[in-house]
Design brief:
heterodimer, A: 239 residues, alpha/beta, four-stranded antiparallel sheet, 10 helices, 10 strands, 39% helix, 26% strand, globular, B: 297 residues, mainly alpha, ABC transporter involved in vitamin B12 uptake, BtuC, two-stranded antiparallel sheet, binds adenosine-5'-triphosphate, binds magnesium ion
Chain lengths: 239, 297
């Protein structure tokens, strides 16, 4: 039973289709990475799956339920969470308030959860009153991730979490993602740092032109020559 | 008139402008468009209170000139305009949002609502001015200065509502979600906030505040079907002065507008004072479009 199943999805902006018949799935407890060239439609795929943009055709199923075109806040209620690629914190809200917003749907226990997360990430925990807009790129990314974890989701979608990070911060973040998975959360991530991402992943997809060009186990992708040439070279140098 | 006396009047007028501008800036910050119906909602608020006073009056609350029924009247008018504003969102603006309409379309729609509201008020209450009470409110003298208890009431209520609004925005889940939605509505959706409900709540709060402003205005002046409309420009000037989306800025902006408008009559004929907000607005848009205090809240 797949946790998330996207079947033949077509979606885009206005009349322009960006995602053209993509199918992907995520199993419970997995880390799945989507790689692909700039503009391939990776972000659009995640946004469409999360009910943020119009879906032209296809289905999205989450926990066996049809959630196609369901508004994002309903998906959150069902146990999915999403960290967008950019603008993923509320800049004028404090760190603590950002976390509270992640638990908007929750009735009680919010304070405990916030304390737990602030304790786990001392960068944030040392100054919970700070405005999120003043944090560094890495701290923002961590905060965005923590916000997404407030409701103990079973699935976390993350769009290029390491895009703006230094190599050291990047390693930290990938470690955080692993530890999130180890706590039982399945992760679907889009990443440009393909090698490092695939190294912690179970499976991967290559998205080209809005469709899945290749799908395989992560180890196999790491040794695939075509992928190596197109996507892994760069991260070998910088990583 | 004495300059200091003009400042006092300016503070009173500015409180009314500021009270209305706080609601206007909230909808501007969260819905992202200029609501041109805000002034006529003010008119509707003052007339609704007038209607309530026609039924329930009660004794005059000394030392103010107001009848006891006005307390009920403010609450009824505030709730009625709040409900109307939230319903208009449901009926009109939400549809436009779902259709992906441009913000300018919504602003124009609000202009239509403004004209319609004004016409309805005129239809129900007629074109002739009305008053809440016939009695006069004798001034208190503090040295050379004269202040009416009613004027203190207006300023006092504005301050109380500003504090309540502050507590709402910074201490309650709803208020924080309103600030989050103002920051980034899509992210608010992603975080699990039902932003449609937040928008409705925003309209309701703005509706309550503007109705209260309407009643406060009518304590000092006659009710006319176009009274609120005449406040629209000063309120926008206050919003821009204070930075769009910033309620404290809007309140301060309202006071600046009120004081400069009233004190201007020291130098220029009072017939020109209505132009002062206009001058302030244009000067601000040229010099500091983000407002004196920035749009942070
Ligand atoms: N809001 C938008 N409105 C219109 N077109 C958009 C919008 N966002 C993205 N696009 C277009 O959709 C295409 C795919 O964008 P998308 O962000 O999904 O690509 P991506 O694979 O995530 O790329 P990147 O690696 O740069 O993040 C691009 O051509 C982009 O110009
Ligand atoms: Mg992208």
């Amino acid at each position: 039973m797949s946790l998330l199943e996207v079947v033949d999805l077509e979606a885009g902006y206005g009349d322009v289709l960006i995602v053209r018949g993509a199918s992907i799935h995520v199993e419970p407890g997995e880390i799945v990475t989507i790689i692909g060239p700039n503009g391939a439609g990776k972000s659009t795929l995640l946004k469409a799956a999360f009910g943020l943009i119009d879906i032209a055709s296809g289905t999205v199923r989450f926990k066996e339920q049809d959630v196609t075109r369901m508004p994002a806040h309903r998906l959150v209620e069902m146990g999915a969470a999403f960290v967008p690629q950019t603008d993923n914190v509320f800049p004028r809200l404090s760190i603590r308030e950002n976390l509270e917003m992640g638990a908007f749907r929750r009735k009680g226990g919010t304070t405990e959860r916030i304390e737990e997360l602030l304790g786990r990430f001392p960068d944030l925990g040392s100054r919970p009153g700070e405005q999120a807009g003043r944090l560094s790129g890495g701290q923002r990314q961590t905060l965005a991730m923590c916000r997404a974890l407030m409701l103990d989701p079973s699935l976390l979608l993350v769009d290029e979490p390491t895009a703006a990070l230094s190599p050291a911060a990047r390693q930290d973040l990938f470690r955080q993602i692993q530890s999130i998975r180890d706590s039982g959360v399945a992760i679907l991530m889009v990443e440009q740092n393909a090698r490092e991402a695939l190294e912690i992943s179970d499976r991967g997809y290559v998205l080209v032109n809005g469709a899945v060009a290749l799908e395989d186990r992560a180890e196999a992708m790491l040794t695939n020559e075509d992928i190596g040439r197109m996507f892994l070279g760069r991260s070998e140098v910088t990583g | 008139m004495d300059f200091v006396q003009l400042i006092i009047i300016g503070i009173v007028v500015g409180s009314v402008v500021g009270l209305g501008a706080m609601g206007l800036t909230l909808t501007f910050g969260i819905l992202k468009f200029a609501n041109f119906a805000h002034g006529d909602m003010m008119t509707l608020g003052m007339f609704t209170a007038f209607a309530v006073l026609g039924v329930v009056r009660g004794p005059t609350l000394e030392p103010f000139s107001i009848p006891a029924g006005l307390i009920l009247a403010v609450l009824v008018a505030g709730s009625a305009v709040a409900l109307l504003a939230a319903s208009l969102d449901r009926l009109i603006y939400r549809r436009l949002r779902r259709r992906g309409s441009a913000l300018i379309t919504m602003a124009i729609a609000s202009l239509g609502i403004a004209i319609m509201t004004r016409a309805v008020v005129q239809l129900i209450w007629g074109p002739l001015p009305k008053r809440y009470s016939g009695g006069i409110n004798p001034s208190w003298s503090i040295g050379e200065l004269r202040v009416k208890p009613d004027q203190l009431l207006i300023v006092g209520l504005t301050l109380v509502l500003a504090v309540v609004l502050y507590l709402l925005l910074y201490r309650t889940k709803l208020g924080k979600a309103m600030r989050a939605t103002a920051d980034n509505a899509q992210l608010a959706d992603v975080a699990g906030i039902d932003t449609e409900r937040i928008r409705q709540a925003t309209w309701a709060i703005a509706g309550f505040l503007i109705a209260a402003a309407g009643v406060m205005f009518a304590l000092q002046a006659q009710l006319r079907y176009d009274a609120g409309f005449e406040f629209l420009l000063p309120m926008f000037a206050a919003v821009i002065l204070g930075g769009i989306g910033n309620p404290w800025g809007a309140l301060a902006g309202g006071l600046i507008v009120g004081i400069s408008q009233e004190t201007s009559t020291y130098w220029i004929p009072s017939g020109f004072k209505a132009g002062i907000p206009f001058v302030l607005l244009i000067a601000m848009l040229i010099a500091r479009p983000r407002g004196l205090f920035g749009s942070t809240f």
